[in-house]
């Protein structure tokens, strides 16, 4: 778990903590000890640790899927921020982990899946997520599988890009 600090404001926060009342303005950035960068965003129904989301300029989030399109900047949930009245930290840069629904390979670009919040290394047209790649193979056991990733300010482009 990274402890966050930032310019002009020090966050003494575990990135897995879920707040029932927002502690910071949405879109606040924090920086982890290991070089990770995090953004404070709203929660939404059924969000799990490691779920991949896209977020809006107001801090609202939607779990990514290959069927909904949802273009925009992306992030990975640090905790189970699973309620519309909760908020927490999402990772946008550095080494982390994301949920996978199928086995994945190392050093590969990633794609959304039909299961909300999960990623895969299987190429799916219009499901590419730019700015994130796997750093190790990942195993999938239902919704509990994880894969090591490196994030570089990921985003879901609009239209086909893979």
Plain-language structure description:
This protein is mostly beta strands. The protein contains no helices and 12 strands. Strands 1, 2, 3, 4, 5, 6, 7, 8, 9, 10, 11 and 12 form a 12-stranded antiparallel sheet that branches. A hairpin with a 4-residue loop joins strand 3 and strand 4. It is globular. The protein starts with a strand and ends in a 6-residue tail after the last strand.
List keywords for this structure.
162 residues, twelve-stranded antiparallel beta sheet, globular, 0% helix, mainly beta
What fraction of residues sit in β-strands? 35-45%
Largest sheet: 12 strands, antiparallel
Share of helix among residues?
A: under 10%
Give the distance, in angstroms, between the N- and C-terminal Cα atoms. Answer: 32 Å
Radius of gyration: 14 Å
Number of domains: 1
Q: DSSP helix count?
A: 0
Question: Which outline best applies?
Answer: globular
Order of helices and strands: EEEEEEEEEEEE
Q: Name the structural class.
A: mainly beta
- State the total count of DSSP E strands: 12
Spans of at least 5 consecutive residues whose pLDDT stays below 50 are none
Mean pLDDT: 83
């Amino acid at each position: 778990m990274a402890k966050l600090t930032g310019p002009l404001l020090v966050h003494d926060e575990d990135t897995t903590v879920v707040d029932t009342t927002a502690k910071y303005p949405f879109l606040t950035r924090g920086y982890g000890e290991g070089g990770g960068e995090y953004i404070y965003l709203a929660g939404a129904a059924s969000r799990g640790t490691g779920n991949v989301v896209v977020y809006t300029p107001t801090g609202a989030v939607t779990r990514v899927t290959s069927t909904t399109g949802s273009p925009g900047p992306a992030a990975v949930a640090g905790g189970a921020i699973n309620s519309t009245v909760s908020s927490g930290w999402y990772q946008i840069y550095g080494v982390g982990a994301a949920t996978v629904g199928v086995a994945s390979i190392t050093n590969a670009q990633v794609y959304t899946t039909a299961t909300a919040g999960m990623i895969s290394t299987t190429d799916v047209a219009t499901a590419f997520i730019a700015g994130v790649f796997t750093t190790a193979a990942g195993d999938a056991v239902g919704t509990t599988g994880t894969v090591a990733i490196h994030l570089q300010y990921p985003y879901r482009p609009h239209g086909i890009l893979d």
